[in-house]
Amino acid sequence: MARALRLARKGRGRVSPNPLVGAVIVKEGQIVGEGWHAYFGGPHAEPNALDRAGEMARGAVMYVTLEPCSFYGKTPACAPRIVSAGLREVFVGMRDPNPRVAGSGIAMLKESGIRVHTGLMEKQCRQLNQPFIKAMVGGLPYLMLKSAQTLDGFVARDDGASRWITGESARKRVHRLRSHYDAVMVGIGTVLADNPRLDVRLVKGRSPARIIVDSGSNLHNALYLVQSALKRPTYYLSPPASLSLQDELIRQYRLIAVEWENSKKGWEKALRYLLGQGVQSIMVEGGPSLQGKLIEFGLADRLELFYAAKTLGTGRKMLTLPAAGLKASPFVSFKWTKQGDDMLFSGVIKEY
């Protein structure tokens, strides 16, 4: 199962909104086939592993990180394929939270006489697909908040500019993280101050869609995110009145207008719309005001905070977490990682 998890990670940034899945087939103590879901719309992990195993799959054991699907979607159902291959036993990391499966794949295997075991390395399998699970059970995209700050707690200069607080290694890590998410979100303040590209030019991978949050009518056609919107999906979240004022710009550059208001209800409505558009995971790179609101409304799931060995002395402070008392922690789990000359704090706020 550990091998299947490693294989599943190869699909990061390529399979959403489908889950990451890996499968390994073992016979007489030897791996005879393995596979993973490599890209959205392509074959799933189980048939890829079965194709590699061929006739060796008969009487073998499969380890798969997620319950095999039981319905025909973009590809044929996996459970019937496992049955027809003649496997004798299947270890499933976790049940599929998708209501279209939800135990029916496991039931199909058992009914055919295959021995099925569930829950092997379940925690790791669930951690692998947090955005998928949240979308299935909560109906909202998974939100990871990324920030970079100095030792004295500043994220930008007084004018809002934030280049470059962290070093090259940390910037490459940020680009790698972007490649794993469906979209990157920024507030209009960041857009106007930095005119960012929000791509993955420092690493190999897929550049995500972009989401701009604007409480007024501040967009203009000289901004890179506007000019490049014809090539990459760009969502523009703003109040209805502001969307009307920006209508010509929206139509000219094919921005995807989304009605939004800065309240919990308004955020949830906009996020559900984004999920319906296939945006299952969002990396929020906006400033402290944007990120602070998402934390305040209980919508943030994870933080990735980079700390640089630098000081600014003055500027804009980092986001503020809700007061909880010295002994209380808002994190389910966290860890520190050295990233070049910087340090990265990774904190999980919610687990699904």
Radius of gyration: 22 Å
Low-confidence stretches: none
Biggest beta sheet summary: 9 strands, mixed
Separation, N- and C-terminal Cα atoms: 20 Å
**Can you list the strand order of the major beta sheet?**
11-10-9-8-12-6-13-16-15
Q: Helix- and strand-based class?
A: alpha/beta
What is the helical fraction, as a range of percent? 25-40%
Task: Look at the structure and give the mean pLDDT.
Answer: 93
Structure commentary:
Helix 3 runs parallel beside helix 4 (104-111). It is built from 13 helices and 16 strands. The protein has helices at 2-8, 45-53, 78-85, 104-111, 122-128, 130-138, 168-180, 188-194, 224-227, 240-245, 247-253, 264-276, 288-296; strands at 22-27, 30-36, 61-66, 89-94, 115-118, 142-149, 154-156, 183-187, 209-213, 234-238, 256-259, 281-284, 302-307, 316-317, 333-339, 342-348. The strands form three sheets. It has a nine-stranded mixed β-sheet with strand order 11-10-9-8-12-6-13-16-15, sandwiched between helices. The protein has a five-stranded mixed β-sheet with strand order 2-1-3-4-5. It is elongated. With 352 residues, the protein is of the alpha/beta class.
Task: Give a brief outline of the structure.
This protein is α/β, with parallel strands linked by helices. It is 30% helix and 24% strand. It contains 13 helices and 16 strands.
Secondary structure layout:
Blueprint: H1 2-8, E1 22-27, E2 30-36, H2 45-53, E3 61-66, H3 78-85, E4 89-94, H4 104-111, E5 115-118, H5 122-128, H6 130-138, E6 142-149, E7 154-156, H7 168-180, E8 183-187, H8 188-194, E9 209-213, H9 224-227, E10 234-238, H10 240-245, H11 247-253, E11 256-259, H12 264-276, E12 281-284, H13 288-296, E13 302-307, E14 316-317, E15 333-339, E16 342-348
Parallel strand pairs: 3-4, 4-5, 6-12, 6-13, 8-9, 8-12, 9-10, 10-11
Antiparallel strand pairs: 1-2, 1-3, 7-14, 13-16, 15-16
Helix pairs in contact: 3-4
